[in-house]
Structure formats: C-alpha cells, structure tokens
Design brief:
The chain has helices spanning 12-21, 33-41, 61-69, 104-109, 111-116, 127-137, 148-154, 203-213, 246-255; strands at 2-6, 26-30, 47-54, 58-59, 72-81, 85-88, 99-102, 120-123, 142-146, 157-161, 170-178, 190-197, 218-225, 233-240, 259-268. With 276 residues, it is an alpha/beta fold. Helix 8 (203-213) packs antiparallel against helix 9. The longest helix has 11 residues, at 127-137.
C-alpha cells in the first residue's frame, strides 16, 4: 500500500502513518499538501495522510481547506504524541549549539528550552527538512528540532529529547481516499462535516440545533473563510456518530433548512488518543 504525506523522511506525518499502517508501508513524501491530494486523486497513492489539528497550535488550515475543496473521503483518524528532540551532527556538544532550525510551530513549542540555553530559533518549512539541512551543510553550532526518527534518517546525534513545554503535545491526522473508493465494511463511528449557512438571522444556531436535537455530541467546531466569498465562512464540525446511523441521517436531512452548502468529509472509526 502506498500512502502519500507532506514532508520528507522522518517527518511526524511519516512516523504516524508507519505506526498506523506498519513499517513496510510505502510512504510517498511530497513537498506540498496539494500534491498529497493530487496523488490520491490520480491513483498515484492509495491513501493520503495529513495533519488536521494540533492540541497546542490548533487547526491546520491548508489541509482543512483541501479536504473541503477536493473530491476525497476520510476513512480514518489517528493521533500522535509529538516529542521534539534537539539533533546535531556527530561530535557537536550541547554547549556548542548556537542556533536551532525547525518549523515555526515546533520552535514555539520548545521556546523555553531554547531561550534558557540562549539558542537562536531559525524558522524552516519543515521539521524533518530542517534536520536534512543540518545534516547536509555542516554549519558549526547548528542543530535542528525534529523527531527522534530524523536522527537515524540523517545520521544526527540526539543532544536532548522531550524538549517541548507540553508533554501532551498531540497531533490529529486524517487518512483519506478518492471519493467513491471507501473500503467495504468501513466502521463509521465519527463523522467530519463542513457547511456554510444561509444569510439570515439564527442560521448558524439553527444548524447546530439539529445536532443537539438528535443527540449528536460535537467534538470539534471551527470556522474557515471562503476565499471566493469575502467575509463568509465554512464551519467544520466533527461529531460522534456514523453516516449510516438513523439519527445522523435525520440531522443531515434537516440541516439543509439553514445550511446553503453541506459536504460530508468522511465517516470513520474513532481513533485512540495517546497517553503521555
């Protein structure tokens, strides 16, 4: 099975997908999230696997937008407890480190550790990409904040581990297939949905009331701007219940009274959240 993800070897997305689907899974790393969706739509990959939210940084907007725009269907969710490590070329001592490269979100999560050691934070596009840069250009005193797996992938030394402020730093991922290619017998326990509302008083309240009326527990609610329609928004909702359940079918039927556009992003088994 080939699974597409955004990033290079050692990225947290690759770590999560191989933990879920097995170390023998063929992981196709791509530079941009758009390319992950392209790979699934063109059958270059069987699955796409992207982060959609982090317990500290919040939603991953680009991936939510793509889930709404593209003809795909989410079939699984997964969680990864993120552990940031400080990595450097062999022979580098912790006291020699002057700068650390990583994704801005990762740098924010380890700010206290870096500040306490007077290490300069240097933003890069990707955590694993930062590790690859450090390994390849041999700048004295340079390190990367990335996964433990990046040390093995790029021949780096782990100078410190678990350096993030929050030990419960968790990222949630969705796996998706091309629309219409959902596996038979898919267990549907949780549903992701996006909708926009009609321009009238109480429309959003009316939409949310449909879920309450049918006893559906919302686990997430957030809004994203609609680029083609300035100052209008799409609302992303997760709730417990599958699209094959009668109460969900009724709620979705009634939702159209106040919603002007509805898309079911996927219905899938509930993923297990990791413990610290």
């Amino acid at each position: 099975m080939r699974v597409a993800y955004q990033g290079v070897r050692g990225a947290y997305s690759e770590v999560a997908l191989k933990r879920r689907y097995g170390p023998g899974t063929e992981a196709l790393g791509l530079a941009f999230s758009e390319q992950v969706f392209d790979a699934v739509e063109s059958d270059r990959a069987d699955l796409g696997f992207v982060p959609v939210e982090n317990s500290i940084a919040g939603p991953v907007g680009v991936n939510l937008d793509l889930l709404l725009e593209r003809p795909i269907y989410a079939v699984a969710e997964d969680y990864l407890l993120v552990e940031h490590c400080l990595l450097a070329r062999p022979g580098t001592r912790l006291e020699d480190v002057k700068s650390a490269l990583s994704h801005p979100v990762a740098l924010a999560q380890v700010r206290e550790y870096l500040n306490a050691r007077k290490i300069k934070a240097v933003p890069e596009y990707d955590t694993a990409g930062a590790a690859e840069l450090v390994a390849g250009r041999a700048v004295p005193g340079e390190a990367a904040v990335a996964s433990r797996q990046c040390a093995a992938e790029y021949g780096l030394t782990i100078l410190a581990e678990g350096i993030q402020k929050s030990k419960n730093n968790t990222t949630r991922f969705l796996a998706f297939v091309k629309a219409g290619s959902e596996p038979r017998g898919l267990k549907r326990e949780k549903t992701s949905l996006a909708f926009s509302v009609k321009h009238k008083p109480g429309a959003l309240l009316g939409c949310l009331r449909r879920f309450a009326d049918h006893g559906l527990n919302l686990t997430r609610l957030e809004s994203r701007p609609i680029p083609e329609d300035p100052f209008q928004y799409s609302f992303f909702v997760d709730f417990l219940g599958g699209t094959d359940a009668p109460e969900v079918e009724k709620a979705l039927d009634e939702l159209s009274a106040d919603a002007r556009a509805i898309k079911v992003l996927g219905s899938y088994p509930v993923g297990l959240r990791p413990k610290e």
